[in-house]
Structure formats: C-alpha cells, structure tokens
Amino acid sequence: MTQPTESTDAGPSGGFLAEIKDAVTIRAALLVLGVLVLQLAFITSYIGAFHHPKPSEIPIAVAAPVAPVAERSVQQLAALPGKPLDPRTAEDEAAAIRLIENRDVDGALIIDPAGRTDRLLVASGGGASLSQAVEEIVRAVERAQGRTVQVTDVAPADKGDSRGLSSFYLVVGWCVGGYLCAAILAISAGARPANVHRAVIRLGALLLYAIAAGLLGAVIAGPVLGALPGPIMGLWGLGTLVVFAVGAITLAFQGLAGVVGIGLAILLIVVLGNPSAGGAYPYPLLPPFWKALGPALPPGAGTYAARSVTYFKGNDMTGPMLVLAAWAAAGSAITIACAHFRGGRPGAAVGSGLPDDSPSVPRFAGEGTETR
Question: Which residues on neighbouring strands pair with residue 63, listed in sequence order?
Fold first, then answer.
C-alpha cells in the first residue's frame, strides 16, 4: 500500500512581484476598471438628475365660467419665465378633473371671476414633489395679481404613502429581483446557456420567479404595509411584467457579453433607469436628458404604471405597458438567438475562474473522464 507524498513540482517562488503578475490578469484588471467606470457613472447620473430639480412645462388645465377669462389666464401662465407650466383650457371643473384622472394634466386652476379666491386642483398620488411645485408656482402668480388660491387634492397619496414614493420603491425592488435572478442563473449554470432549450428553460424559470415576485411585492406594499391602496391583481400583473422584462434584458446582455452583461444590466437599470424613473422627482422636474430617457426604461415605465394603477384607476397605462412588453420580448428574443448562434458552447459559471467561452465545469464527477 503506497502512502501519498507531497508534490515538489511547485518550484522556487519568484517573489512578491511575480505573485502579483500571476494573480492580476489583464481580464481582472479590465473588470475592475469597468466597475470603477460604473461607479462613477452611478454618481454622475444620480447627482445630475437630483441636484437641481426645476419645473419645466408641467401640464395644467385652466377653467373659468367665462371662456375669455380662462384663455387670458392660459396666456399669462404660458408666458412665465422659464416656461414652468404648459397650460391649456378646460370646459369646466368636471372636465378639468377628468383630465387629471386621465393623467393628461398634473393640476388644474379653477378661476372664480366674481371673487378673489381661486381653486387649484392637484394630484399628489402622481408625486408629492410635483404637486408641491405646481402649488408654489400658481400661488406666486396669484399673489402677484392680488388673489389667493385654495388647494384641493383630487387624487391624494395614501396616508401610508405620504410622499408618493412607495410605487417607485416597489418597482425598484422588482427590478432588483429581475436582474439578480438572471445573475444567479449565470453564477449557478453558466453566463451563457449551452443551447436554445437551455435558454428557454432559463426564461421559463425567470417567468415563474417573476410571477411569485410580482405577487409578493404587491402583497407587501398593499395589505402588509398599507402603503399602496391599489388593486392587488393590477399590481401583481405589473410586477410580473417588470421583473420578467428586467430579467430578460439581463439574460440577453449575458448572452451577448458573458459575465460583463450583468454590469451592462446594472448600467441600464440602476445607473440610468432609477434616477430617470420619476420617483423622487417626476418627469417635469427632471433635467432634459433624464426626462426624455425615463419613460423608455423599465423603472420609469413601471413607476408611472404603478401610480396609474394605485391612484388613477389604471388610466394612461398603454404606453408604459408597451415599453415593458417590448423590453421583455426583445430580451427573450436576444437570449434565444444568442444561444442558437453559439452552437452549443456553454459559458462558464460566474466565479468558476474560467473564461466565458470555456466549457462549464462538469456537473458530475464522472463527466468528461475516460475509463482506463
């Protein structure tokens, strides 16, 4: 019976510098550099979006018993320096309320020509910072004319959602779940699926996860915490689509770029998507770049749709739902296409130490070995 002996093949050490040269590969250095760039982009994006909110063309309706009075007020509001408002006339107060409920405008000024007090209708459910901005602007205009204004919230945020941010944080949580689920699949089974069947299996697993995450998120935000009064079924469906869309995008990026795809997903969703989502500051308060970008990305589309479900009877959801569906469909199609064109070459699992194009480590000890 032979005893195991220690190997002497290691040879003499080349010193600390040699160890550094052996340990720090070009690939590792590039990945660390990519993380630094991602971090700086995160700082730039969030501070750039939030450091100086400025009202810009906030849609507002104006109604008065006499049409010329409303038209004259619209002209005055449209001529304000910096164009903070985008005013339009409404036939009467009822029509103005319908415009708010349909999310065509973010407020309405109801003028009383016979008195010195007008009424301002706002909707804090669409974002407390936005309704406050409308109130401040209109109050300043009324004060300059020797008039006062009485504020009425026709779509108020729930008492458990005082700043109107619960919808945003719910969607952020769903987005985090989506790309983390896809990343976990890369860690456990390889950054790239081996074939189309495996790609479909990953998408199927992601869909099951999205259904569960959508329901549990809606339940926590609604009945458990009492933060959102919206219907559970509506939020559940929205959450499922948000989670699946973000997860499919991440799978697609991984199919295109391997493990680097996780970083690309974070760049798109976290660095660009979250600050432009209209959460803390709705779109009319964001700088032009983020204002234009937000509605086209899943966090922005999801946040807008969640507020519509919760406070506006599901109105004006077609656009955001189409955006989410487009991301989900594109992510799924790219994931399957990448698996097809790779021709059965699986990517190594994240953390295995193998390059992305290396075959995955065999799942069973006997795989890939020959009998002698």
Answer: 110
User: Judging by DSSP bridges, how do beta strands 117-122 and 148-153 pair with one another?
Assistant: parallel
Distances (CA, A) of 255 to 54, 196, 199, 200, 275: 40, 11, 9, 13, 26
Query: Percentage of residues in the chain with pLDDT exceeding 90?
Result: 70
Is the model's pLDDT at 361 over the cut of 50?
no
Name the residue type at position 121.
Answer: L
As beta bridge partners, residue 89 has 62
Of the ranges 168-177, 206-215, 290-299, 337-346, which one carries the lowest mean pLDDT score?
Answer: 337-346
Query: Measured between alpha carbons, how far is residue 368 from residues 187, 317, 339, 345, 365 in Å?
Result: 21, 52, 22, 15, 8
pLDDT in tens, 32-60: 888 899 899 989 999 998 888 999 999 99
Beta bridge pairs of residue 42: none
Sheet with 107-110, side-by-side order of all strands: 85-89, 58-63, 107-110, 117-122, 148-153
Q: In 220-343, where does DSSP find H-type helix?
A: 232-257, 260-266, 288-293, 298-311, 318-342
Angle CA(173)–CA(348)–CA(341) in degrees, nearest 5?
90
Q: Which of 120, 113, 59 is nearest to 87 (CA)?
A: 59
Q: How far is CA 95 from CA 63, 105, 140, in A?
A: 9, 11, 25
Sequential DSSP letters for 248-278: HHHHHHHHHHTTHHHHHHHIIIIIIITTTSS
Query: How confident is the model at residue 368, as a pLDDT?
Result: 43
Residue 108, beta-bridge partner list: 61, 121
Quote the strand ranges of the chain, DSSP E: 58-63, 85-89, 107-110, 117-122, 148-153
Burial 128-149 (b: 16+ CB within 10 A, else e): bbbbebbbebbeebbeeeeeeb
Cβ proximity of 199 and 336 under 8 Å: yes
Average pLDDT over residues 109-125: 94
Query: What pTM did the predictor assign?
Result: 0.85
What does the alpha-carbon distance between residue 58 and residue 52 come to, in Å, rounded to a whole number? 16
